[in-house]
């Protein structure tokens, strides 16, 4: 079997024999272990030293390099996270465009392809991850790298009307066509991409299902990312910390509502806090009987929009607790720090409701992790935004619109009252979907398709 080379913005090496927390790192390691290979990307450091550091563990080599300050500002903080991230999450209002940042983005992609080239063997399969690296394949072709190259987009793909807000959208999308296979989380994303290719640039869908655009022939497919349900259940069962129902100084038994996210405006946190407050106002019989735990460690805290969302949330949380708390009851626990995976899965298992309401999300693994953590004999209820990719598969969740505050409040009330038989039915239905499209299936099917699809011989990119 040919070697696998994974390229992603960040690399998560095995530390002290352990794979970094989070399903994705585990899935990538398993793929690399099966065929041996390289995981290449940014080390996370900002430094003027451009040398690659290599570390080999078993049959996997981690090859990482630092970015200098200008590259970090333009490629990472700028075009990736202040232009692409908001626009791909349908947030034109939060996006900015700066031509120098775009040029920096292109420059870093070209530099990374050049650094990778000497590490490659001719039959390596190359798998590129996410929006930071859209032009990577074109840069490889320019360097006469002829290996098979696949791309997976972890975030949504927006409709053409939104995408075209990015001034160089044409050039950006042209670079995508140099991949052999492009994978999306849902059919909505794939169709938006196909729409752009056929309507904006008059690409053609061939009889064999492939696409031809900008003189390139390639494939686009849907590969919903999943979790490892057995691993999650084991973690959840082995958690020994705080449990539901919990007792405080009183005899009151309280149910938990739980949410876990990176602190990001796409996750709908402010709307969620407002909905929880509306729930306590409209259904006062639940007061003192529920506690909402929101875990949200900061991310990208040097990007302005992320500072704003943090301030908004702090003020909203203070407002709710100030108005409704009692000496023996705090309605909202807002924890601004990260937790280990066992604790998270344990908290999921003992929470009566998983409250997962992003305004837009590629997939949202937390929704799947919440369900997979449940006790099959007494499962909790998932309240899920229709705008998470996961809603396409987890159709037995209570599906809500995160822009509908009262609708979300009503869903919380319904979830907390739901009879055991209905909870079990919904849980079993969701577990079937989670098992059918788990993390192994995502990785294996994508790589099988990348290895086997035959695309036409491609001309080298222009120098
Ligand atoms: P993210 O936006 O990071 O990922 P998500 O899929 O929900 O979103 O989470 C990724 C992982 O991080 C999960 O395993 C989760 O448990 C963990 N995590 C989240 N918050 C945490 C916290 N507070 N503490 C500790 N761990 C936490 C992007 C896309 C998603 C897509 C994934 C994978 O935005 O839509 O599902 O990639 O493709």
Question: Could you explain the architecture of this structure?
Answer:
By secondary structure, the chain is of the alpha/beta class. The chain is 41% helix and 18% strand. It has helices at residues 23-35, 69-88, 99-116, 136-142, 160-163, 169-176, 187-200, 229-238, 269-282, 304-324, 341-349, 365-373, 405-417, 420-436, 439-452; strands at residues 4-10, 37-46, 52-57, 60-67, 125-129, 148-152, 181-184, 204-205, 211-213, 216-222, 255-260, 290-295, 332-335, 353-356, 381-385, 398-400. The strands form two sheets. It has a ten-stranded mixed sheet, with helices on both faces. It has a six-stranded parallel sheet with strand order 13-12-11-14-15-16, sandwiched between helices. Helix 9 (269-282) packs across helix 13 and helix 11 packs across helix 12. The longest helix has 21 residues, at 304-324. It is globular, with a radius of gyration of 23 Å. The two termini are 32 Å apart. Mean pLDDT is 92; it is low at 244-249. Residues 22-24, 154-155, 225, 260-262, 295-297, 338-339, 344, 361-366, 369 line the site of adenosine-5'-diphosphate-glucose (ADQ).
